[in-house]
Amino acid sequence: MKNKKNITRKEAIKKIGNYSKYAALTALSTYIILHPKSAQASSVSLPEAPSDEDFESF
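Predicted structure:
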């Protein structure tokens, strides 16, 4: 690969063409995989099951 040619952002977007949705999905998936803690922080946690101590007062 001796012929390294720099291209502009506009040319790169033209080359991507119809693959932009695929590229966006890939980027999002990669972000979620590499940053699982931030993805979990936005997820809803399940309520905790009642313990035996909760039923002792009855």
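Summary: The chain has a mean pLDDT of 73.
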